[in-house]
Amino acid sequence: MINLCGFAVSNYYNKTKLVLLEKGIAFTEEQVFPSQEEKLLERSPLGKIPFIETEHGGLSESQVILEYLEDVYPENSLYPADNFERAKCRELIQHLELNVELHARRLYKEAFFGGVVSEEIKIEVKERLDIGLKGLARLAKFKPYIAGDTYTAADCVAWLHFFMVSMTSQKIYGTDIVVAHLPAVTTYMQLIETRPHVQKVAADRAVAMASFLKI
Ligand SMILES: N[C@@H](CCC(=O)N[C@@H](CS)C(=O)NCC(=O)O)C(=O)O
Questions:
Q1: Which atom of ligand 1 is the closest one to the Cα of 65?
Q2: Which of 19, 83, 109, 126 is the most exposed place for a label (fewest CB within 10 A)?
């Protein structure tokens, strides 16, 4: 049985959890917070979450976990069958994470944790987000799913990261930068949220956010 470690505020934890749920893989959840304590570093090399524990050992990095789950549990695949379409799906995920979410992440301290981010960083992050989201707008299909007519891993990732980036940009810039670049996103988010497993992850996230974050 897979043990998923982390906490339900984290979009990367929720990504892994949603994939496990959508694929119908049995798992347990263990609440773990990131830290640099040796006890955690023995389980997660950088002290980050999420990580999973399997009968073969531990695994970190949500995308690596996702790929592992696809390899070991090919049923209920979250990738298209065609090789090129699979690659396009992974391309979307990579752009979402490296060129959008990772930049927005620099603002989370002020958006969610009561900290302060300098004006300089806010300006720099806005520039990066504009470039990242413009690129994503060229790739995203919304027909009706982000990679085309099938629900894929890219939707699991997009739904989670769009939520965080939208909320962050509204708090920091007073405007929803995701909607500004991707007007179809509002209808898209509503469509994704009709899925029962998405609703379960959203409900758990709401409970976790209310207790952990100063929002
Ligand atoms: N690339 C990693 C990102 C994971 C990540 O950044 N997790 C955050 C929580 S959302 C964390 O553990 N942060 C603590 C830290 O950066 O030390 C993945 O995909 O799993």
A1: 20
A2: 83
